[in-house]
Design a protein that fits this description.
Helix content is 27%, strand content 55%. The protein has 3 helices and 6 strands. The protein has a single domain (3-123), classed as Roll (Nuclear Transport Factor 2, Chain: A), CATH 3.10.450. A hairpin with a 3-residue loop joins β1 and β2. The longest helix is centred in the first third of the chain and has 20 residues, at 3-22. It is of the alpha+beta class. A 6-stranded mixed β-sheet has the order 2-1-6-5-4-3, with helices on one face.
């Protein structure tokens, strides 16, 4: 796959992954994440897949919208580093939330499918 093909390809992958998260259905999210997937964020640190799925399943965390713009893709054999700017809305413990973040998703190619093994979130700091 050429560099020109990587961004639109991973834009589609990220779009499908985002759609799964907005479904708030862990069975759908599971299809995009490795068993050992972790989420790293500024509030919770390293969050295991099990912990993330638990808060989604019990309704503590919901997502209503999620968009990501793929800005950079680097592929190293069966590993891809995908950098995006993402925005999402939803609720955390029944309180409305919205986020604007730099997102790095690390994918591993497994049986001809790209599976996310790590998601790292960094809040966008706006000037001012």
């Amino acid at each position: 796959m050429t560099n020109e093909q990587l961004i639109p390809f991973f834009q589609a992958v990220e779009g499908a992954f985002s759609k799964a998260i907005v479904s708030n259905d862990t069975r759908k999210i599971d299809k995009f994440t490795a068993d050992d997937w972790v989420l790293i964020d500024a509030q919770g640190g390293i969050i295991s897949k099990q912990s993330f799925f638990s808060v989604v399943e019990n309704g503590q965390l919901t997502h209503a919208t999620m968009t990501k713009e793929v800005l950079r893709v680097k592929v190293y054999n069966d590993v891809a580093l995908v950098t995006t700017r993402g925005q999402n809305t939803g609720t955390w413990q029944s309180v409305p939330m919205q986020a604007d973040e730099w997102v790095t998703d690390v994918y591993r190619k497994q049986h001809e499918q790209w599976i996310c093994v790590l998601t790292h979130l960094t809040p966008v700091k706006l000037p001012g």
